[in-house]
Hints:
Elements: E1 4-15, E2 18-30, E3 35-39, H1 46-54, E4 61-66, E5 69-70, E6 78-81, H2 93-97, H3 99-103, H4 108-121, H5 137-150, E7 155-159, H6 167-184, E8 187-192, H7 195-201, E9 204-209, E10 214-219, H8 235-255
Amino acid sequence: MSSLTFRNVGKTYQTRNGPLVVLQDINIDVRPNELVCIVGASGCGKSTLLQCAAGLNQPTAGTIELDGEPILGPSADRGMIFQSYTLFPWLTVEENVAFGLKLAGMPPEDRSKIARMYLKIVGLENFAKALPKTLSGGMQQRVAIARGLANQPAVLLMDEPFGALDAQTRMVMQEFLLDVWRSTRITILFVTHDVEEAVYLGERVYVLQSSPGRVREEIKPGFDPSRDYHIKRTPEFHACVDGILDLLRSEAVAAL
Length: 256
């Protein structure tokens, strides 16, 4: 399994009004098999940081490394899951999951076998021949996750993947992601603005502050890997959530 390392990462855009510093001195370690969350207010640079890790954007300072090798561009060793499902509506569920395998030149029989294996992991093997429009939002996001896993990346990068879902579906999808992570042991970096989500999912949580985006604190919730949604009812969970909310609130107040 693989590790992802951010060292003194910065991102500056040149604008008409001068340099705009979006990220500054970001240092983050995602260890093999970990599910690490990044949480922060809108505009703190979370998505920009994830895009840099995916190779879709380039930092202007520092380095991002996968297993010690610098990331210079997109690659199949990093899977990206977005908030929007980004499924091809004219392809079946199975064809969507197998799309990256097809691009890689894998024979049809082999890619069908792999696609169906991951559809089974996400509980959608009975929908292999369905079109995306016939599925619920949560089911479509599960297809997107299966597609990301089917390419067998070293790291899965997730950019607020449950942000468009209703509260109940979002909770179910969080449990689902933990199940997938426990069964595959893939390394995951998960970006969210939802503090409860970050505390529930993350083995460790990096809290980002804004203007420019930088790491305010690293927090280890310390819950058992076998946790389920009942953990959200415990005093320890609420204390951790409240601590992060206090950090974010103090920053918001200071910015007024």
